[in-house]
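During the practical work, I selected for study one protein's amino acid sequence and its C-alpha cells, as given directly below:
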Amino acid sequence: MRQVSIIGIGQTKVDEHWDKSFRDLGVDAVLAAIQDAGSPPVEALYLGNMLAGQLTGQEHTAALVADYAGYRGIEALRVEAACAAGSSAFRVGYMAVASGLIDVAVVVGVEKMTDMLGNEVTAALASAADADYEVMHGVSFVALNALLMRRYMYEHQVERAAFANFAINAHRNAMNNPNAMFHAPLSEAAFGKARMIADPVSLLDSAPICDGAAAAVICPTARAREFSAHPVHVRASAVATDSLALHDRKDLLFLQAGRLSAQKAYAQAGAGPEDMDLFELHDAFTIMSALSLEAAGFAPRGQGVRLAQEGEIFLGGRIPISTMGGLKGRGHPVGATGMYQIVELAQQLRGEAGKNQVDCRLGMAQNIGGSGGTIITHIFESAD
C-alpha cells in the first residue's frame, strides 16, 4: 500500500444556497480543490452524499458532478454512510490511491437541504436510523439524541448547563471562518434560555440544516511535492460499525464504533490521543461531542463534558475541537460534513486557519453516521 497525501482543498460557504443547485455546489468545491492542487490529471471522483435522492430528486450524483466539472469519462462513484458519507467517500478515494489503482483522485462531499420544508428534511434524516424499530414509531434524530443526553445527565450527575461550552466554543471559532454559516457569538445565558426541541436538547444544542460542498485532491505521497508546496499526509483511515438502533447497543452511552475506529487509526498512525494536537469531532448535538471525546480516548467515561466545562476544548486548550466552527457553528450539510472536517484539518496543518490557527503537527477527524451506526476516523500529519 502506498502512502497518500492531500494536495488540494476547496469548499463553498455553508449557507442556505437558494441560487445554487446540488450540482453547482459540487462543481464549485471540486474545481476549487483542483485549482488549489495545480490542476493535476484527475482520474477519479468519489462523491459523498446522503439525501440528494430524497430532497432534490437527483440520484446518479457522482457522474453528474464529474460531467459538469469537465471530467466526463473518468471513474465517478457515489458513497453513502448517512451523515458519515463525506468521510466514507474520502476513505474510498484513499484506498483507490493507496492500492495503486488510481494516482490522482478528487473527493467531494455535497448536500442540498434547504429547498424542502423542515418536516420533509426531518423525515429524510430519520432514514439513517432503524426504519423498522425506530423510525416506524415516530422517533426523530433529535429525539434519539435527547434520549442519550437525558441518560448521560442522569448517569453522570451533570446538568444541561454543563454542555454549554461545546456550543459556545463552536460559535466563537465560526466567527473567524468566512465559510461558516454563523458569525455571531453565543453566551451561556442564551444557551440556557434556548427553545427546547426535544428536552433536554435545545435549538442551541443542535447543528443547523444547510447546504454546502467541500473537496480534496489526493495522490501518492511520493508525488505530492510535484503538485503542492504544503501537502498533508494521511496517517490513518479507519471505519467501524455498530447497531443502527440505540436499543440494540450493549452500552447506550458508549460509541463502540467510535472507540474501534479510533483504536484502528491510532495503531495505523503509531500514535495515541495524547499525540493529537486537535480533534474535529461530529458535534451535530452537544451530547455527541461528549461521547466522541470519550470514545476516542480524550476523556474517561462520563468526563467528556468536563473538558468543555474546564475550557480544554478551546483553541488554547489541551485538545481543541471544532476549530473552524464545527457542525454547530460552520453548519452541518450532512453528506458534506466529513469532507468539511478534512478540509479544515488540512487548513490547520498547512498553517492557513487564520485567527483560529492551532500549533499542530497531527490532527484527527471523527465523522459519525446516524447515531453511531458508522463512525469513520482519520488522522493527518503536516508535511512541514
Summary: The longest strand covers residues 232-241. The first helix runs from residue 22 to 36. The two ends are 23 Å apart (CA to CA).
